[in-house]
Structure formats: C-alpha cells, structure tokens
Design goal:
single chain; SH3 type barrels; 2 domains; seven-stranded mixed β-sheet; five-stranded antiparallel β-sheet; 22% helix; ligase; DNA-binding; transcription; transcription regulation
C-alpha cells in the first residue's frame, strides 16, 4: 500500500533501474516493474529471457542486516511468490526450491536475483529482482541441459491480470519481512514458513556448490536459512549456497 512503483514498458534490467533509484536515495519498498527486459539477468551470470507478457520486477530494501544473513531476503521473496501463487491457484502445488526459486510440478515458475551494495559490515541496500513466468516461455538455449524446464502462471490456471500477481507478491513480502522499513527481520517466522513450503523435503538430492557437490536426504532448513542435508551414515550438514537437483531413483 502506497509503495512507489515505477513502471517501464522496456528496460535493460529492472535490477539496474532499482539500483539507480537506490543510489539517488529512493526509499525502501520502491518497486521497478517492466513489461520486458532487453538484458534480464539470472543467477550465476545466466540470461533471463524477458519477452513481453512476463512479470519482471525489483524491490529495493534497506535492511539492517549482517551481510551473511542477506540470503534470507531472497528466501523471503521465494516464499512470497509461493504464497501469492498458492492463494490464487491453490491446486498449483507451488513450492520453494531452496534457496530462491519457485517451482510447480517440478518446473520452474519463478527465479530471484538478489544484488547487494554492501561492505564487510553493513548492507547499504539490497535489490531483489523477481522474474515470474506468465506464459510458459521458450527454454533459453543457454539453460537447456541445466536447470528445470519452465512453467508459466497461465498454465497453472491463473487468469487474473499480472498486476494482481504483483500486488499479492508485494503484500506477502511486506508481511514476511515485517515491513519494508529498516528494522529487525522476523527471521525465525520467515524460515519456519519457508520450511513448510520447501520442495523435495525428505527426498534424495544433490547440491552443487562452488566447493564441490554433496548428496543426501533433504532434511529441511536450519534457523539461519541454511539447507540441511542428511548424509549417508546420518551426519547432518548445513549448506549456505548451491544448486539443488533431485536425484532420480
Ligand atoms: C534466476 O533464476 O537465475 C534468477 C532470475 C531473476 C530474474 C529477474 S527478472 C527481474 C530482475 N531483473 C533482472 O535482470 N533479473 C531479475
């Protein structure tokens, strides 16, 4: 309610526009939305194909958070998208794919790219970029072979306008963060909610990290948002970053 929303028919990346606004002093809760992006970005330097008709937006936050806890912001965004979809299309089976994707029926519905302006001790601001597939997009050739196939809201039975999706996601995010103004993040409640919506709980997964790959049963989330794997033999291991894939039996 009352958020400054900047709409662009076309931008390079909504994350870049949000960053520009942040540098110019825009308040927390500023939202940048575009109908299409010419250089949409994904995680790990990937491209996020952004044809007209999808939903591409970025939210500016100015959290009082240690940099190591910033992953909670993208986790909150994944929960917000999942909640928004669940509230409108309950049968869609949307789930949070840790750390920051939303999937439905084993396909990718939304991705999140959090970018920070921070030094060792303080976060100046965070831009949370959210891309939600509306029509099911064509598979980006750069991603073919890796990642999950995409699915769009329309295919899940969503008939309302995109603005309705946006409104629901922003309302859910506002609730999960305890407001957009700087303050204490309600981390415990947020992680508990993420945990209850987590995809692949109890399944055998593989997690690829820059430091190597780990296999085990996905046990859940630790209080700080880390993914907990139960390794063969029963030892538990917390992981703070990585790409999770389901291991086919
Ligand atoms: C991923 O799954 O790798 C993350 C994709 C994030 C895409 C969104 S679309 C809005 C914002 N602007 C960008 O350039 N990227 C994010």
């Amino acid at each position: 309610a009352g958020l400054p929303v900047h709409f662009f028919p076309v931008v390079g990346s909504t994350n870049d526009e949000a960053r520009r606004l942040a540098e110019a002093g825009a308040p927390a809760g500023t939202v940048v939305v575009a109908d299409r992006q010419t250089s949409g970005r994904g995680r790990r330097g990937r491209t996020w194909l952004s044809p007209p008709g999808g939903l591409y937006f970025s939210v500016l936050l100015r959290p009082q958070l240690e940099p190591r806890l910033v992953a909670l912001l993208s986790l909150a965004s994944a929960v917000a998208v999942t909640r928004a979809v669940q509230s409108a299309v309950p049968g869609a089976g949307a789930r949070v794919k840790w750390p920051n994707d939303v999937i439905a029926g084993g396909r990718k519905l939304a991705g999140i790219l959090a970018e920070l302006s921070a030094d060792q001790e303080t976060v100046r601001f965070a831009v949370i970029g959210i891309g939600i597939n509306v029509e099911t997009p064509e598979l980006d050739p750069a991603r073919a072979g890796g990642g999950l196939p995409p699915i769009g809201l329309r295919q899940l039975g969503w008939t309302q306008p995109r603005a309705e999706v946006l409104g629901r996601v922003l309302a859910a995010l506002h609730r999960l963060l305890g407001g957009f103004e700087p303050g204490q993040l309600p981390a415990a409640a947020l992680v508990a909610e993420a945990s209850s919506l987590l995809a692949w709980k109890g399944e055998e997964v593989e997690v690829r990290t820059p430091f190597g790959s780990w296999q085990g049963r996905l046990a859940g989330l630790a209080g700080d948002g880390a993914l907990v794997l139960e390794r063969p033999g029963g030892a538990r291991q917390s992981l703070y970053a990585g790409d999770v894939t389901l291991r086919e039996a």
